[in-house]
Design goal:
3 strands, 8 helices, elongated, single chain
Length: 159
């Protein structure tokens, strides 16, 4: 069963069920996107709509373990080491003309923006567990001490 953006916004406490019904009515009459109507009619922050959309996207796509895959060299060439770590995005393979990339649900919004604004090729994302993505990023784009979400690991001094 598909989870709809309105349901996600209700669960997050952003909209009430009656507001979602009203938005759906406007959408039926105008054909405008659901999120845009939420923003216009109820002053919902676009970031909240984007977050709900990313949650829906993450639920719809498959989850993989990128440690079990060998990224295609031409896919890896699409992203620099800095970009891969900054956006928590690992190119895996080509699906026709589309680049399949792995990320985590937490990093999806940033990864999608990166792909849309920088790559110059159509891309789609599959989800990964953070630990698996971090290990796969280290295997493909080694960066000692790097961790997901832009944090660096800190080595502890032993007395």
């Amino acid at each position: 069963m598909e989870v709809r953006i309105g349901t996600i916004l209700i669960e997050k406490g952003v909209l009430t069920p009656d507001q979602v019904k009203a938005v759906l009515g406007v959408q039926e009459r105008t054909g405008k996107p659901f999120g845009l109507i939420c923003e216009q009619k109820y002053g919902i922050d676009p970031a909240q709509v984007e977050s709900a959309w990313a949650s829906q996207y993450a639920m719809r796509t498959r989850t993989i373990d990128p440690r079990l895959m060998t990224p295609h060299p031409s896919a890896l060439d699409m992203v620099t080491r800095r970009q891969a770590w900054q956006f928590n995005a690992l190119p895996i393979s080509w699906d026709g003309r589309e680049l399949m990339m792995a990320t985590t649900p937490e990093a999806l919004i940033r990864a999608l923006r990166f792909a849309a604004n920088v790559l110059g090729v159509p891309a789609y994302f599959v989800m990964s567990e953070p630990e698996a993505l971090q290990a796969a990023l280290q295997a493909s784009y080694p960066l000692p001490g790097a961790t997901l979400y832009g944090r660096r690991s800190r080595s502890r001094k032993v007395a």
